[in-house]
Amino acid sequence: MSLFISQAHAQAGQPAAGGGELFQIAFLVGLFVLFYFIAIRPQRKRQKEHAEMVGALSKGDEVVTSSGILGRIKTLDDNYMVLTVADNVDLKFQRIHVHAVLPKGTLKSIGS
């Protein structure tokens, strides 16, 4: 009855080899291993380095926050720090928002 589609007939052939399922499993495991080394492992390394940097902060360090504010640490406690960003201007931040610790004297060389 079909005018444009010819009928397909199934061919009786040899049974398919059983390696297809094993290949798919090996492929998925390989993708996971590749994803681990490309994405997960470097991210964990960066998190560990950041946690060590935040733990090593001390009074007087010059830092840059994740929002780009530069300042000198005035006081520290377990979770927060107070930065002096200008004369008589102190801001309170969470310690985890420190992006980088600057070399001593950087604020004087940048500032006016």
TrEMBL record:
<feature type="transmembrane region" description="Helical">
    <location>
        <begin position="22"/>
        <end position="40"/>
    </location>
</feature>
<keyword id="KW-0811">Translocation</keyword>
<keyword id="KW-0653">Protein transport</keyword>
<protein>
    <recommendedName>
        <fullName>Sec translocon accessory complex subunit YajC</fullName>
    </recommendedName>
</protein>
<dbReference type="InterPro" id="IPR003849">
    <property type="entry name" value="Preprotein_translocase_YajC"/>
</dbReference>
<keyword id="KW-0813">Transport</keyword>
<comment type="similarity">
    <text>Belongs to the YajC family.</text>
</comment>
<dbReference type="Pfam" id="PF02699">
    <property type="entry name" value="YajC"/>
</dbReference>
<dbReference type="GO" id="GO:0005886">
    <property type="term" value="C:plasma membrane"/>
</dbReference>
<keyword id="KW-0472">Membrane</keyword>
<keyword id="KW-1003">Cell membrane</keyword>
<keyword id="KW-1133">Transmembrane helix</keyword>
<keyword id="KW-0812">Transmembrane</keyword>
<dbReference type="GO" id="GO:0015031">
    <property type="term" value="P:protein transport"/>
</dbReference>
